[in-house]
């Protein structure tokens, strides 16, 4: 099976080709070049006037289209969500749970495991599960349900991880909690990415956590010790650690655009992972929703807990995140790095998140206003406007 996407502006992490083409063979990018394309392909897509960008990868999303991974624990729902994501140019994602009872988390992992086994090109690829909690700091719960927060327990965590055949790819932990270091070490030994989040760790504790194996910041600055010039807290430790990837919720609600800019300019796009932290209310109308058993009110797309008014995820989508970042003056290349390549690298996945020979043919075709026109996963069209 071969396909060529022609006449578009090809955006990769290294270059922009004004009139370019991308040749795909058997789900893999076989050739990237400047027109005219002189080879042969069974299927031809004309992308005149369009952008051809690496498919977006969202490593922190809880739900979309009225469904979420913690509440809708069946493979059919997961596959439905995979389809909804594809409408936004997402070609791969991690299914993020919220803090919930252990058996609920186990069921959620099992549902994602089954969905991965059943997946036959229905929308975006499912990379695995991101457990956000339950081993987080109750003082920094944010919109996580305090009733289900747990103290780090290695045996329990092992059982949870092992119950669903390697589906857990990332876990968010508060590293300052007693016993968290053992969880971090175990997670690393199993190749699970450890993200520090919902934490009130100090700067020093943050540095120690990075030494232990934390390689990611769970939505940097949100749900974290506040930065103070005499007490910088874990956020600065993560920012200053060159091996740590930094999640940013780029809705300009969770972080002031100037802070987003500060992070990107300091850490460079290579370390910045744009995420949505989206919840079930995404692609839905304003109203009342639920997250981890807590009531969420969505007004003008902004999600807040009904009782405390704390921000509770977002209704952001990755195509909007791409547009938002571009609006700050970053180049298309830089935006693509933060929406695709850095997310893939943050999970340690090779040959994903770029338009280069040998990479998985996961591509979003956007119009000039960054609206998604087509989404291609492993060389197959999974969404068409
Ligand atoms: Fe989250």
Q: How would you sum up this structure, described in words?
A:
This protein is α/β, with parallel strands linked by helices and 385 residues long. It is 26% helix and 30% strand. It has helices at residues 75-86, 102-118, 154-162, 180-189, 203-212, 233-239, 257-267, 318-327, 332-346, and strands at residues 2-11, 16-25, 28-34, 43-46, 51-54, 56-61, 63-64, 67-68, 90-97, 125-132, 168-173, 193-196, 214-217, 245-249, 272-275, 287-291, 294-299, 302-305, 363-366, 372-377, 380-384. The strands form four sheets. Strands 1, 2, 3, 4, 5, 19, 20 and 21 form an eight-stranded mixed β-sheet that branches. An eight-stranded parallel β-sheet has the order 6-9-10-11-12-13-14-15. Helix 1 crosses helix 2 (102-118) and helix 5 (203-212) packs across helix 6. The longest helix has 17 residues, at 102-118. The mean pLDDT is 97. The structure holds fe (iii) ion. Residues 60, 62, 96, 132, 277, 313 line the site of fe (iii) ion.
> Approximately what portion of the residues adopt beta-strand conformation?
25-35%
Order of helices and strands: EEEEEEEEHEHEHEHEHEHEHEEEEHHEEE
Number of helices: 9
Strand elements, count: 21
Ions, cofactors and other bound molecules: fe (iii) ion
Percent helix, as a range, is 25-40%
Q: Which regions have little confidence, pLDDT < 50, spanning 5+ residues?
A: none
Which sheet architecture does the biggest sheet show?
8 strands, mixed
Shape verdict: globular
Q: How much is the radius of gyration in Å?
A: 20 Å
Sum up the structure in keywords.
26% helix, globular, 385 residues, binds fe (iii) ion, 9 helices, eight-stranded parallel beta sheet
